[in-house]
Amino acid sequence: MSAGFSLSGFSLAIAGLRLDVTADDDLPIAPEGSARKFVVEPDGSPPTARLHARWGDPRVPDAPVGFDSGKGLWRLYHTANGPEIVFTSPMLGEAPYQTASFSDDFRRGLVTLRRAPFADRGAIYPLHYPLDEVFMVHLLARGLGVELHGAAVVLPDGRGWLFVGESGAGKTTLARLWRVAPGMTVLSDERVVVRADDEGGLSLYGTPWHGDGHIAEPGRARLDRVFFLRHGERNALTPVEGGAAVARLFACGFTPFHDAAGLDFSLELLGRVVRACRCAELSFVPRADVVPFLLGS
Questions:
Q1: If 0-12 CB within 10 Å is exposed, 13-18 middle and 19+ buried, where does residue 4 land?
Q2: Maximum CA pair distance of the chain?
Q3: In whole angstroms, what is the distance from residue 118 CA to residue 263 CA?
Q4: I want to staple 18 with a disulfide (CB 3.0 to 4.6 A). Which of 9, 47, 124, 219 is the partner?
């Protein structure tokens, strides 16, 4: 058994938030994929959130729909006991294969899995995609942070640079170029989290959710600059300020549109990012010379 977890439970630290995951005795669980890098030993302090998994008969609740992913993957319902997320798959029939019920602040959750779809597996990762990311987006929106489509690079002096862009904008390409540059650390090539820190600044975190470069590291850096990506015929920087920068960050953010308070918090935090950091559009050619170009800017 790997250090840091057992078949009855484990703890993850994602974006500085500790998640304790446990399960009933008859449900063996373990982290999978990049999530293994984020396993930590509990230090005796209370976790940010506690999640418990069990076998059961997940069903669609008799409650209003708060959000539909539109892809047949998941829906969020507003039940009398709090939000409940229902997961279905065309390959597994109409009945849900999993539900996740949460307290209103998303700090307590109960995951119920239908045994049949998982019968041929050993240990189960109860937060398998898309539950892991859906849960984190809602937890972060409770005043904790914002997840973004972005790559994160840490310079040797500890500054963090955020490269934001939708799929195809060049995040993985840039992440690979930075990764071979001396002294640089790449935290992610696809998903990052931005949070306010205790010193009054902003911190940039890697996450388990990577892109084609499979770069997912549990590090942290002080957020210093933001670059909005687009491919171009030459390397060039164009300043982006104020509302335009907030709008471009928001377009690349994972924010709960069905949650007014969470949406307000996310916009406020993105506004803080724009006020605190230099933001610019980076038009670049996917060659190694973009790295010295940026270091000299």
A1: middle
A2: 59
A3: 35
A4: 47
Q: Which amino acid is at 225?
A: R
* Chain centroid offset of residue 43 CA: 23
Cα separations in angstroms, 30 against 39, 124, 144, 176, 210: 10, 6, 26, 29, 19
Condensed to tens digits (0 to 9), the pLDDT of residues 71-106 reads 778 999 999 999 999 999 888 888 999 999 999 999
Token pair 């310079």 in the structure block, residue: 155
Q: Give the whole-angstrom CA distance, residue 203 versus residue 197.
A: 6
Q: Is the entire prediction scored with pTM above 0.85?
A: yes
Q: What is the 3-state secondary structure (H, E, C) of 231-288?
A: ECCCCEEEECCHHHHHHHHHHCEECCCCCHHHHHHHHHHHHHHHHHCEEEEEEECCCC
In tens, the pLDDT along 164-212 reads 998 888 999 999 999 999 999 999 999 999 999 888 899 999 999 999 9
Cα Rg for the chain, rounded, in angstroms? 20
Report the candidate in 23, 1, 22 with the shortest Cα–Cα distance to residue 12: 22
Backbone angles phi, psi at 56, to 5 degrees: 180, -160
Q: For residues 227 and 245, what is the distance between their CA atoms, to the nearest angstrom?
A: 10
